[in-house]
Amino acid sequence: MKKKVAGRSARAVVEPSFSPVSYLWRLSRLLPVVLLLVGIVFQFLTPVRLNGSPFFVAAPLIAAPVFSLGRTVAFGVAAFVSAATLRFVADIRGEDSVVQSMAPQLTTIAFATAIAALVNVLVRLSSERLTSAHEVAEAAQRAVLPTPSKHVAGLRVAARYQAAQREALIGGDLYGARSPPMAFAW
């Protein structure tokens, strides 16, 4: 990434971010997989009358805001297939109470996947609108930001644009001037 600074090209320094928000973002990308695995393990380790459907339903819903539409649907399909496979295993074992209650569970997972897909589309549209508004604001900022003269009252002038926040390219205007340090001759 290159930025223009005082007429010269400079390389922007991108530092790794270890903020709590970035940590939570990374963690949220693992959560759907963890939910699917916990649902499967829960289904095997708990009594017959309990099932892992809350974990299977939550997986695509958690994936919706952080993954693409395809991956969100893939998590829903994985949840559906996991629940259906567990139904098949329960049927082989002869656990009739589980087999009879699986139709609502599979319907709920399918419905949650459809809702997750809708949420994903809405999040993407909102993100695109925000990006567009940000780009328009940045263009307006650059258009009205005055460029100072190269020389004022015999002094050489240099200007630098620095936003208040690291990734924000828009902000208020503030200009300052100072005289250079004087060299002492002995």
Helical coverage, percent range? 55-70%
The helix count comes to 4
The N- and C-terminal alpha carbons lie at a distance of 45 Å
- Major sheet description: 2 strands, antiparallel
- Structural class comes to mainly alpha
SSE order in H/E notation?
A: EEHHHHEE
Give the CA-based shape: elongated
Indicate the radius of gyration in whole angstroms.
28 Å
Q: What is the typical, i.e. mean, pLDDT?
A: 76
Strand order of the largest sheet: 1-2
Extended strand count:
4
Poorly predicted regions are 1-15
| Beta content | 5-15%
Describe this structure in words.
By secondary structure, the chain is mainly alpha-helical. 60% of the residues lie in helices and 6% in strands. The protein has helices at 20-45, 53-63, 69-93, 96-144; strands at residues 2-5, 8-11, 151-152, 155-156. The strands form 2 sheets. Strands 1-2 form a two-stranded antiparallel sheet. The protein has a two-stranded antiparallel sheet with strand order 3-4. A hairpin with a 2-residue loop joins β3 and β4 (155-156). α1 runs parallel beside α3 and α3 (69-93) packs antiparallel against α4 (96-144).
